[in-house]
Specification:
Two copies of one chain form a homodimer. With 210 residues, chain A is mainly alpha-helical. Chain A has ten helices and no strands. Chain A binds a DNA duplex (30 and 30 nucleotides) through loops. Chains A, B: Residues 7-67 form the HTH tetR-type domain.
DNA sequence: ACCCTCCTACGTACGCCGTACGTCGCAGGG
DNA sequence: CCCTGCGACGTACGGCGTACGTAGGAGGGT
């Protein structure tokens, strides 16, 4: 193992953790396994990282920091909000196995504020400021968090929240559901994301009129 | 231990699991501990439950089934949607330590369809049917899932997604955030939930006009 | 009355886990 | 030359889920 010659570093350890998380999910991460992957003794990791929880935090921050900057070629605030939402979605889709972990964890302040600031700028363009802008941003975050949880944590092997409609349920008790059973069993995540996003934007526009 | 005389039952085991989850969270659940709590041998549990994952599923379903029916005294579809959203929120707040688990798990079909059917009924009242109603319901679910994740998984000891703004970040790089720093550090979950909910309803109303 | 079957309870053991602690070897400075 | 300090590592403890084997009792058939 060539890598076993390199000295152990916090960076190398976090790297390995991120790779492992992306490949097999957080629950696959263990100190022993990580050490083995690095060709090192288990306890050597503790010279660089105080414990597993911190290590996972560091991995989460590293993934968060990967968020790509993006450029929008438009003056319409709607396009900026759309671009921002798509960027968040892209991050979630690049790291499906890490998303729940990220969503459940306290954001690192730096990356958090970068995102918040962008959100506030976009709402500012739409004419929303101060308290109300914060409320709207939070509603947007909630929507994004929710859809992406549904999209990304939905694939069966990740253990998701999807409904699996055809499991011996007596549908006669649920007439309206029965009518749209096909829709309920189908997921077009692109389309759903777009639909919900436009719904949110429509809501903002409505507030703009007052 | 008086309870150790009772015969072991699936129901008794699931009950104990639910209690433990509510008291200390899913991660505190272990077969050994559960058995000890029931005054039984660890392996005896396996006569009633195939493995821990299924046991946790059963506990999740049991909690889900606790959802209280509610009555709305109004003809306005908005009030029905509000009531439904509040019911979901109440469930989440009654089981904060279980919510992330519930949100991450495949819903039991029965309870799932009950909720879906109510959602579809409410949207039907507003004049939305078929595919578009499904889309709207999913957007609502996303919003609810998101806000409630933020609300319920936010308390520090549960390891949440809240921002904690005052941690040596150079705010001069984030002027808009700096302006509303107080807002960002404050959480009024009642108010935020209501605000986001009205935002969603406003969006639906807008679609109604077309 | 007998036995046979089946179900439940339980003990043991294996292979994982996180990590406290102690030791060893080596690099650097005096 | 030795001393100090630090990184790497082995061992060990107490936890975990669960495969497997056994023992005991309850119920039914004869």
């Amino acid at each position: 193992m060539s890598s076993s010659r390199e000295p152990l570093t916090r960076a190398r350890i976090v790297d390995a953790a991120v790779r492992l998380i992306e490949r097999e999910g957080v629950e696959a991460v263990s100190m022993r396994r990580l050490a083995a992957e690095l060709g090192a003794g288990t306890m050597s990791l503790y010279n660089h990282v105080p414990n597993k929880a911190v290590l996972v935090d560091l991995a989460a921050e590293r993934i968060m920091a990967e968020a790509r900057p993006y450029h929008v070629d438009s003056d319409d605030w709607r396009d900026h909000i759309r671009a921002h939402a798509h960027a968040v979605r892209a991050l979630a889709r690049q790291h499906p196995r890490a998303f729940v972990m990220l969503a459940t964890r306290r954001l690192s302040s730096e990356a958090g504020f970068r995102t918040i600031e962008i959100g506030l700028m976009n709402l500012d363009k739409a004419g929303f400021r101060g308290k109300i802008a914060v409320g709207m941003m939070r509603a947007m975050v909630s929507y994004l968090l929710g859809t992406l949880m549904r999209e990304v944590a939905t694939s069966p092997e990740l253990g998701g929240i999807a409904l699996s409609p055809y499991e011996g349920v007596d549908m006669s008790a649920f007439p309206l559901s029965a009518e749209v059973l096909d829709e309920l069993g189908t997921y077009d995540h692109d389309h759903e994301f777009e639909f919900g996003l436009e719904l949110m934007i429509a809501a903002l526009e409505r507030y703009q009129e007052d």
